[in-house]
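Q: Given only this backbone (207 positions), what sequence would you predict?
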């Protein structure tokens, strides 16, 4: 396994940060944030990443570093920060969308609005991505171990995440680390738009 260290993301990291966030969102990110346009989706996430307090802000992101290279991104939340970030995201929409587009975003987001309602006793991995160059080197497991340490430091004993039903590689990684599938969330009518039939919720209970 590669030796890695973690450092907090900064607002100037918006290009690699947005790229790795979009790696976790896949086609869903293009559908929701770019209204079907890939370039627009990246621009929106880049803006969110630079700003403070929203759900995609650099303030909640950490980079896994191999030497001076960014090997991965981790974004985590407890319930309080999750709720606060969602409220600020709503405000920051005014910075990335025209008034007439906000209604379109809300309409697309509504079916998914309850997916990230995490319980008070959980620490939630919102985004975990390994840069392509560093995949299959054990870095994903090290990032999960780091997230587990953060969970314990918060005084919590549950670590949770969501991943697409079809993402068998990610599910295998999480199962190897001790996560168990607890819920399947289906959106079959959205598969043409987002490329997925839904998500699975996975939880690891820490001893």
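A: Predicted residues:
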């Amino acid at each position: 396994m590669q030796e890695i260290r973690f450092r907090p993301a900064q607002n100037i990291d918006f290009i690699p940060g947005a790229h790795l966030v979009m790696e976790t969102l896949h086609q869903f990110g293009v559908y929701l944030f770019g209204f079907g346009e890939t370039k627009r989706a990246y621009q929106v996430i880049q803006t969110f990443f630079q700003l403070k307090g929203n759900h995609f802000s650099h303030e909640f992101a950490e980079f896994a570093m191999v030497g001076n290279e960014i090997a991965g991104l981790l974004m985590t939340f407890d319930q309080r920060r999750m709720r606060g970030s969602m409220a600020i995201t709503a405000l920051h929409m005014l910075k990335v969308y025209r008034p007439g587009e906000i209604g379109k975003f809300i309409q697309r987001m509504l079916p998914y609005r309850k997916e990230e309602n995490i319980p008070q006793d959980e620490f939630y991995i919102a985004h975990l991505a390994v840069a392509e160059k560093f995949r299959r080197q054990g870095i994903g497991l090290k990032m999960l171990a780091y997230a587990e340490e953060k969970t314990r430091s918060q005084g919590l004993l549950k670590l949770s995440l969501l991943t697409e039903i079809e993402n068998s590689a990610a599910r295998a990684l999480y199962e190897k680390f001790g996560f168990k599938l607890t819920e399947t969330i289906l959106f079959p009518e959205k598969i043409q738009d987002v490329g997925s039939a839904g998500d699975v919720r996975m939880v690891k209970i820490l001893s």
